[in-house]
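Risk register update: the risk of archive-format incompatibility is retired. Evidence:
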Amino acid sequence: MSAVPWFLAVGLILLLLALTSSVLSRLPLSSSVICLVFGVLIGPMGFGLLELELIRDAALIERLTEIAVIVSLFAAGLQLRLPFHHSEWGLALTLATLGMTLTVGLIAGLGLLLGLPLGAAVILGAVLAPTDPVLASDVQVKHSMDDDPLRFVLTGEAGFNDGAAFPFVMLGLGLLGLHEIGEWGWRWWAVDVVWAIVAGLAIGAILGIALGKAVLYLRRHDEAVGLDNFLGVGLIALSYGVAIWAHSYGFLAVFAAGLALRHLERTAETSPPDDSLRTAAGAETAEDLATAEETAPAYLAEALVNFNSHLEHFAEVALVVLIGALLRPEMADWRLVLMVAAVILLIRPIAATLAILGFRLQPIQRGYIAWFGIRGIGSIYYLTYAIEHGFKSPPVETVVNFAFATVATSIFIHGTTVTPLMHFYRHHPSSGQTSEDERRGETTPADLHPVGTD
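Archived output:
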C-alpha cells in the first residue's frame, strides 16, 4: 500500500483542525469525533482513499498505536502531581485493578454468548477493558496543579490500566495455546502478573528518578541545558526498551517514569511549579530558570509536559483517523450493536460502581466515573498485539468487529457528551469543584512554555 494517501490524509486533517480550531472549540464535541468522521470519509465506507485492513496490516498498526500509547502514558504520568498518600491514588488503582478485572470478566461473558472460545473471549475482554481519556481532553487532568478528583482519577486509571491489561491478553493467548502459562496457570501468575507488573513499574521509577537527579545535578553546574525534548523522548525509549528487555510491561514502565519525574519535582520544590516559575519568569532568562536550584525541577517537568502534550495531540489525530478508516459495514451487525451498547451502558457503569463502593465521592463524581470509560487507541494496540502473536483463527474476525465497533461508538458518544457534561460538572455545586483558574485569576502551568520546548 502506498504511503501517499496516508500522508495526504494526516496533512489535510491537521491543517483543517488548525484553521478551524476557534470554530471547533465552540462546538459541543471533542476533536476526536471530527477525526473519526474524517477517517470514515477517506476509508472504504467513504471515498476509499485509504485502504487498510487490520489483520493484513496488523504489524504496522501495532507499531503506530504502540508509539501513541507510550507517549500518552508518559504525558499522563507527568501530569499527576498529587502526593501518593492522597485517596485519589487508591481510587485510580482500584479502578485499574478490581474495576478492570470485573470489566474483563463481564465482557468475556458477552464473548462466550457470541460463541467465542474461552481464550478469544478473554482476549476480547482484555482489549476492551483499558480506558483512554486522552481522546476526550476535557476529562483528563488539565495541568500539573489540577487536583480535581474526577479528572485525576480518570487520568490515573487510564495510566495504570493501559499496562495492567497485558496479563489478561497473555492469559487469553495462553488459553488458545499461543503462550505458555504453565500448569494451573503458575507461570502466568509468576511471570505475566507479578514479575512483569512489579519489574515494569520499578524500571520506570528508577530510570525516571535517576535521569531527573542527573539532569538537575548537571544543571546546577550549568551543564546539560537545553534539548529538553530529547530528554523526554530518550527517557520514554530507554524505559520502554529496558522493560521489554526484562520481559516486563513497557507501558507501565513509561507511565512510572513520568510519575517518578513528577515526584522528584514535587519533593524538590518548596512551592508549586506554577508559583516558582511565575515568580522568576519576569526576571530571569530561560537558562537561569533551567539552572537555578529553586526553579530547575519545575522547569524540567513543565518543559517535558509541554513537549509531550504536542506529541500526544499529533498521535491522537493520526490514530483516530486510522480507526475511522478501518471501520467496515459488517461491524454494524445488529448483534454487535447490542453487545456494544451493553459494554458502554451496562458493563462499564456496573464494574466502576462496584469497584469504588468503599470510597467517599459525590454522587455526580461517581456517575461521571461510571460513564467515562472511554475506549480508544490502547484497545487497538492490544488487538493487533494478539493478532501478531498468533491469534488468527476464525474467531478473530468477530473479536475485530466487536472491538472496532465498541471503540468507534465510544469515541463518538463520549466525544459528543464530554463537553456539555464537563461544563455541567464545573458549575454543579455538589461536585465540590471551583476552577483553579477562576479561583486564582491566573494562567496555568501549561501556559508557561519554557523557551525551546515547542
